[in-house]
Amino acid sequence: MTAELARECVRYAQMGWMRGTSGNLSVVLQRDPLRLAVTVSGVDKGEITAEDSVVIDVDGNAVDSDKVPSAEAGLHARIAHVAGAGAVVHVHALAPVVAAEHWPNGVVLKDLEMLKGFGRYDHEEVVIPVVRNSQDMLELGDAFEKGYDPGVPALLVARHGVYVWGDDLVQARHRLECLEWLLRFKVETRDIFTGRNA
């Protein structure tokens, strides 16, 4: 699993979604008690290795290790616990941050074929929740849980980034790639369809 985390990080770094040491990924190792492997803090994601991960508990604390988990580890654990996700990815792609800036109460997506890649039908109306940024993972976790919709495996953190989850890292990646496209379309067509998309 740790090698898979490293490979996925390198992929995202090459896409420009994990610049420098930003972003983090996690995968669930067991459910009871909840344990996740999460990328460590302060490592260049384009150069990360299988050694650069640490096991955390349900509160985001390292288990039997002196390695420092990513600052957002607690939110990864909260998402895994509440949503039942097998993997959580957090990147700093630009389109989700810009979309959250334009639609701070949630980004409405509808009538777009790419919604199928996000796990929804193209005719469905999907609202991607947006929460205010905070350095307090308990506060972010509470905000996530308050607006959690089991049918929407994503969360936008204003002026920060996006979290997407799935059964495993591959499903989470596919959902993230499709969501990034959807949000980029939404942002780039905002002026064209102001009445419909506002």
TrEMBL record:
GO cellular component: cytoplasm
Every Class II aldolase/adducin N-terminal domain range: 3-187
SMART domains: Aldolase_II (SM01007)
BP term (GO), one: L-methionine salvage from methylthioadenosine
Co-factor(s): Zn(2+)
Lyase in keyword set: yes
MF annotations from Gene Ontology: methylthioribulose 1-phosphate dehydratase activity; zinc ion binding
InterPro entries in UniProt: Aldolase_II/adducin_N, Aldolase_II/adducin_N_sf, MethylthioRu-1-P_deHdtase_MtnB
Lineage: superkingdom: Bacteria
Cofactor note text: Binds 1 zinc ion per subunit.
EC number, as in UniProt: 4.2.1.109
Statement: the UniProt record of this protein carries the keyword Lyase: yes
Residue numbers binding Zn(2+): 90, 92
Enzyme class: lyase
Catalysed conversion reaction: 5-(methylsulfanyl)-D-ribulose 1-phosphate = 5-methylsulfanyl-2,3-dioxopentyl phosphate + H2O
Keyword annotations of the record: Amino-acid biosynthesis, Lyase, Metal-binding, Methionine biosynthesis, Zinc
Family: Belongs to the aldolase class II family. MtnB subfamily.
PANTHER family: METHYLTHIORIBULOSE-1-PHOSPHATE DEHYDRATASE (PTHR10640:SF7)
Function text: Catalyzes the dehydration of methylthioribulose-1-phosphate (MTRu-1-P) into 2,3-diketo-5-methylthiopentyl-1-phosphate (DK-MTP-1-P).
Protein's name in the database: Methylthioribulose-1-phosphate dehydratase
Source organism of this protein record: Lentzea albida
Gene name, Swiss-Prot/TrEMBL: mtnB
